[in-house]
Amino acid sequence: MRSRFDSVLKPVDKTNSCDVMTLSEAVEYCKLSKPTIVKLLQDGTLPGGRFGSTWRIPRAEFIAAFEKRLRGNYKG
Question: Which H or E run includes 29?
Answer without folding.
Answer: helix 23-30
